[in-house]
Design a protein that fits this description.
mainly beta; ten-stranded antiparallel beta sheet; 0% helix
């Protein structure tokens, strides 16, 4: 099945649909990929969504972890994947798929579990896996109607092996975290620091990017600077305005 504007349709509207790419339709595009767990094992159960601001299509991986979206119109899509376990991280990235383009994401996308979790409001600074320290608003509450736990969870990933495609961003990704566990905006943004980060040196300025669930696009939050002691600190007045995929990029 595929979800479109709150309705469900069968057949090849979903990732696992039959038929393949229609050569007679100039709007036809397709996306193929695969997912694994952190141990490299194929993940045969996950919730996979390919969304525009107006609608989402869904796919179910096969036993080898392969998924597909076929007979779709070219667009800038948000690709969101969550494993079936309660502690599975939600990955978010954006795929710019052109009309008539058939694209295969070459490397498997790794779907990890969160490694840290702290209750919002319990402390002004939340320590996240991988040395990420977020200065959260101690009075923050979840948006009305949100049915998630009021926790900030996270997991640090190796950008070289995570398999995450990052369309539309220039530079080398030197830091990657998945934060959650819900889709929400934080205003004003929460500043952060990182104890240390591989691949950077003192004096480096890094671009801070998060995934905007609402606008369906990457958000350039500002910059972070590497200090003499190796600590990475977000610039004053900036930080994280979305708790989702966090990227640090070195030009």
């Amino acid at each position: 099945e595929a979800t479109e504007g709150g309705t469900t349709d069968g057949g090849d509207e979903s990732g696992g649909g039959e038929g393949g790419v229609d050569p007679n339709d100039p709007m036809t595009a397709a996306l193929f990929g695969s997912i694994t767990d952190e141990a490299g094992n194929a993940m045969g159960e996950a919730d996979i969504k390919l969304c525009t601001p107006l609608q989402c299509k869904t796919a179910v991986p096969d036993s080898e972890g392969n998924f597909e979206f076929v007979n779709i119109e070219g667009a800038l899509f948000a690709l969101e994947i969550a494993g079936e376990t309660d502690n599975s991280a939600v990955i978010l990235t954006f795929i710019d798929l052109q009309m008539e383009e058939v694209r295969t994401i070459e490397a498997p996308i790794v779907i990890p579990s969160y490694r840290s979790s702290d209750t919002l409001g319990s402390t002004a600074t939340i320590a996240v896996d991988g040395g990420l320290n977020i200065s959260a608003d101690p009075n923050y509450t979840l948006p009305f109607g949100t049915d998630m736990e009021d926790k900030l969870s996270g997991v640090k990933m190796d950008p070289a092996t995570a398999g995450l495609p990052v369309d539309g961003l220039d530079g080398d990704v030197v830091g990657l975290w998945y934060l959650g566990t819900w889709n929400t905006e934080v205003d004003p943004a929460w500043p952060f620091s990182i104890d240390s980060l591989e691949g950077v040196t003192a004096g480096d300025t890094l671009k801070v990017v998060t995934g905007d669930y609402l606008g369906n696009v990457w958000i350039e939050e500002g910059t972070a600077t590497v200090g003499e002691d190796g600590t990475v600190t977000s610039e004053a007045g900036t930080g994280l305005s979305f708790l989702s995929t966090l990227l640090l990029i070195k030009d």
